[in-house]
Amino acid sequence: MLEIIDANLTDNVQFVALDEMPPNAGHIAVEYRNCMLIWGGYNYDKDGQYYRAPDFLYIHPSTLFGTEDTWVKYKLKGDIPRATTASCGLIFGDVLYTFGGNIVVEDHAIEHVRSLAIPTNSFYGLDLRNGNWHEIFDSGNKLPTPRDKTTGFSCSKGLFFFGGYGPGNRHLRNPENYLYKNDDFLEDDELLNNCWNNQLLHFNGTKWNLIDQSGSIPPQRAAASIAYNPSTNKAYLFGGRHSTVRMNDLFELDVGTYKWRELKFGNEITKPIGRSWATLTYNPDANYFFLYGGIDPNNFPLNERMKLSFTAKSATCQCEYLEMSKSVPEKRLWHSTLYISGTFFSYGGMKSPPSGPNPPCTNSMEIVKVSPTSLKVLAMRKVAENLKQKHIYEIPYLLQAKLLMLIAKQKFVESIEKSNVGFKDCLKPNPNIERHLPSHTSLQVLFNALDA
User: Are residues 293 and 199 in the same domain?
Assistant: First the structure.
């Protein structure tokens, strides 16, 4: 049966520890104002599936805090989406958009109630200034077909989504209401109502469009990785699952012309093996793409970290393994990786095969620094450690808000240590643990304090 987890909150906003957050995969992760935002997802074990409550947003102040242990949990309002996994989330302006994924419904038509995951084409926006969800309807125009495991990117033109898995036009009522061409879909021989697709969808702020692609268009796939380089206006697509095959092909999309070209790897020795559910993340400071994890053709999770580099006119990708830390990277698939202020943050996902005997999901976070922390942030952290209460209100308001946040975070961590409990024990109510944040009247004011 459907079970919503992690739904308790004593205030509309409060600190939570990483270990309090249940293992999670299939979530949305985006960067906004130097913070990692997490929404949705699920985990499962032998007893059932557990979906993260959809009316909460998890905020990791990645630049300001720098460590993985403390997050902010925020209560959302408005048209709350259903509990969802395998959707795609993108930031445009001050709005987090979510498209597609699996929603869970309970089937009461059989003797024992069971939960069914159903692909959807639901489209929501979360206003990050006030924490309000709103469902977006494009009435009178054709809509995308339902799908999960689509991948996407945003740019000045709007939102773009590629591929995914779900019912094709032949399996939908009123197919004339949907965006498609007859050769967009590849049937799944095992689940005949579902298909892989290679559509490139565009939402321009008011209307959905099915892009007329040209060039070497990638074959149909789901759970692929894509990342966008704003300096060249090009997006790069790697891997994913096409029928029973997990691929290692690589494509470049010119977002100005919507023309694809397939790229080759310069060295067969370092060419990545096929995979789906990996992450591809752009580092704008060093102009390369970071490929991490995934699941290989033999159903084994991967922990490879690879650097992919491109030049403007070359059809070749240079790929090399990255040794970014002394510790061995965790094996991960269906996780998230963001680049924020000189650091790669990888969160959640699965550490073992989904079909394996052990619960596969994890709540761990890996932090890999590739450039030094700014002197500004280091100075704020040091000042917060030594600042006297009587001097706090002599500081300009915006800086004051950030320092108060750092002080409150330190009190939260210290209160756990003084209570002689581990983070996992914090799931139990404990008045001695200081979860409260400095007073904030809106989500926008909260981000003003968390941004660094």
Answer: yes
